[in-house]
Design brief:
- By secondary structure, this protein is an alpha/beta fold.
- It has helices spanning 2-8, 10-21, 23-33, 36-50, 66-75, 112-127, 129-132, 153-158, 161-169, 184-194, 210-216, 244-247, 254-263, 269-275, 285-296, 301-314, 319-333, 337-345, and strands spanning 77-83, 87-92, 96-101, 137-142, 199-203, 206-208, 220-223, 228-230, 267-268, 280-281.
- The chain is built from 18 helices and 10 strands.
């Protein structure tokens, strides 16, 4: 890009080094201008850089090599949150949250409590300061033999169809916040798209109906080759109504979306990869998701959030809107601390990132 060309030029590079060399002035200014903790940390980073480009660790406190950090991240669970005995949120080191659908005795099928738990998990990750403050990526998986087999029709029927439909279809749902636009059935998918971090769904066993639509709300889907997937609603005389109309258009051609929806056909993970429904097929989707999440976590949280927003707001927009949006987002990134920190890493120096407010 023209911005990167300028950055890598000797003139621009020298300007960056000159700025960082003035740590005696910059550090105290940052400490006064920003919150005390944040200002001190940035000032310390700038001072360390100017003292000879000393290594300053990333905000995860780990080495920048994502490949060597995966196993440590998976084991190092700082905290666990349980929601309605249906979903667990594991807070891992490095800012990665692992959301686990944990109704394995019912193949993680969706009763009303599961709908509410999934929507609450997505909402809390975006709004709860303790969860959102250092969040860098989300991995979603299913416990047991399946990601999710979709609607638990028997449970919904026994709980009272009319009351259940009111809970699922009332718009907006209680979980979408002030600018919520979806009902509860849609928010279990659409709320993952609103998080300013990458969301990776890990599919195995079976991923049917509503379970597949939850996965469609993720930014990426990693599947085992033999996972069985289906847009299954037509088998019940219904259509997919959990935000599939938003997500499918970004992934597959309209004829493929129509065929998969009208037939309700069950396909494998490999088939889904070929048509674009999943991102990639691997033997261990969770391991691969943590590896990719760790790699993304080494980038500026501002640029990652802006990249997600860019593509989600322009994928189906006209060219003029796309070009304007690109420039607007880029201008918001330029000359920020995180953009400077990202640039410095090209010179082998790790300054800390800070999550956007």
């Amino acid at each position: 890009s023209p911005y990167m060309s300028c950055l890598m030029s000797s003139q621009c590079t020298n300007s960056v080094f000159l700025f960082l060399g003035l740590s005696n002035m910059v550090g105290p200014f940052l400490s006064r201008s920003l919150s005390a903790a944040r200002g001190r940390c940035i000032a310390d980073g700038v001072s360390a850089f100017s003292r000879g480009f000393s290594h300053v660790s990333s905000d995860s406190g780990e080495d920048a090599n994502p490949g060597t950090a995966v196993d440590r991240r998976r084991r190092a669970t700082r905290d666990e949150i349980r929601i309605r005995d249906r979903v667990r949120i594991l807070q891992l080191k490095g800012g990665i949250a692992h959301v686990v659908l944990s109704r394995s005795s019912k193949l993680n099928s969706l009763d009303i409590q599961m709908f509410e738990a999934v929507a609450e998990a997505a909402s809390r990750l975006g709004s709860d300061p303790d969860l959102a403050r250092n969040l860098r990526a989300v991995v979603i998986s299913g416990e047991g033999r399946a990601f999710s087999t979709g609607l638990d029709a028997k449970s919904v029927a026994l709980s009272g169809p009319k009351s259940a439909m009111k809970i699922l279809l009332e718009r907006p749902s209680p979980y979408g916040g002030e600018d919520g636009i979806g009902n509860l059935a849609q928010d279990v998918c659409i709320l993952w798209r609103r998080l300013p971090v990458p969301v990776i769904a890990c599919l195995h066993g079976m991923c049917f109906g509503g379970g597949l639509q939850i996965a469609l709300g993720a930014d990426m889907r990693f599947s085992t080759p033999d996972c069985k997937l289906s847009i299954m609603e037509s088998r019940w005389g219904l259509i997919p109504d959990m935000a599939a109309s938003v997500c499918l258009r970004e992934l597959v051609p309209i004829d493929v979306a129509k065929e998969l929806t009208m037939t309700g056909r069950i396909i494998t993970g490999e088939d889904a990869r070929r048509v674009g429904l999943v991102t990639r097929c691997v033997d261990d989707p969770i391991e691969e998701a943590f590896r990719v999440a760790a790699e993304i976590a080494e980038r500026s949280p501002d640029s990652v959030a802006s990249a997600k927003e860019l593509f989600q707001t322009t994928w189906t927009a006209d060219e003029a809107d796309c070009l304007r949006r690109e420039t607007d987002l880029q201008m918001n990134l330029l000359e920020t601390w995180n953009q400077l920190a990202a640039s410095c890493r090209n010179f082998g120096v790790n300054l800390p990132y800070f999550n956007p407010k």
